[in-house]
Automatic annotation (TrEMBL):
Gene Ontology BP, a term: DNA alkylation repair
Keyword Magnesium: yes
Pfam families: 2OG-FeII_Oxy_2
Database matches in PANTHER family: ALPHA-KETOGLUTARATE-DEPENDENT DIOXYGENASE ALKB HOMOLOG 3
UniProt source species: Pseudarcicella hirudinis
Biological classification of the source: Bacteria, Pseudomonadati, Bacteroidota, Cytophagia, Cytophagales
Cofactor: Fe(2+)
An example Gene Ontology molecular-function term: hydrolase activity
Family matches, as PROSITE patterns: FE2OG_OXY
UniProt keyword Signal, yes or no: no
Descriptive protein name: Alkylated DNA repair dioxygenase AlkB
């Protein structure tokens, strides 16, 4: 599939840019974010039960841009210089001014993110999500919310950018599944607009 081609057959838009950042820039940002981001592991509620998230997270953004999901309320840390640089490049492609970023640190193949949609009310009607990956390449999947057999898979590689917009969060859910083989650390930033 070529760059800029919509990954979704209908009811949504997802565009993949595999070499969004050069390898040297990607290496730099990976090390910078690993060291300076205030990572933490928090409990979330799944079907009424509290469990620890299988990854580390952090929330950065404009002042007052609070985000709540799965029983967690996140207060933003102030943007770092590295995050501001990465955000600026993501905004050039998306033509959106992102107010916030959810960062995920996947320590190994056991760390994951289950099926979900980014459809919280704070994100507005048709959320634009700009997803940047640094570190290990991992398989990312999109599944049609009405036809669960319809799945699109793509490897999100070091320095890549995935843009989801339009009606994607209405009709498609996504996940980062666990993997059995040994996988190195991966950092993912999902830029968002909090209304």
């Amino acid at each position: 599939m070529s760059e800029n081609q919509n990954l979704l057959p209908f009811q949504g838009e997802a565009y993949f840019y595999p070499d969004f950042f050069s390898k040297s820039k990607s290496d730099f940002y990976f090390n910078q974010l690993l060291d300076e981001i205030r990572w933490k592991q928090e409990p979330i509620k799944i079907f009424g039960k509290e469990v620890m998230q299988p990854r580390l997270t952090a929330w950065y953004g404009d002042e007052g841009k609070i985000y709540t999901y799965s029983g967690i309320t996140m207060i933003p840390h102030e943007w770092t210089p590295a995050l501001l640089e990465i955000r600026q490049k993501a905004e050039e492609i998306s033509k959106v001014r992102f107010t916030s970023a959810l960062l995920n640190l996947y320590r190994d193949g056991k760390d994951s993110m289950g099926w979900h949609r980014d459809n919280e009310k704070e994100l507005g009607l048709n959320p634009v999500i700009g997803s940047v990956t640094f570190g290990a390449s991992r398989c990312f999947q999109l599944r049609n919310y009405q036809d669960k057999k319809l799945i699109r898979s793509i490897d999100l590689s070091h320095g890549s950018f995935l843009l989801m917009q339009g009606e994607t969060q209405h009709f498609w859910e996504h996940q980062l599944p666990k993997v059995k083989n040994t996988v190195d650390v991966r950092i993912n930033i999902t830029f968002r607009v909090i209304k």
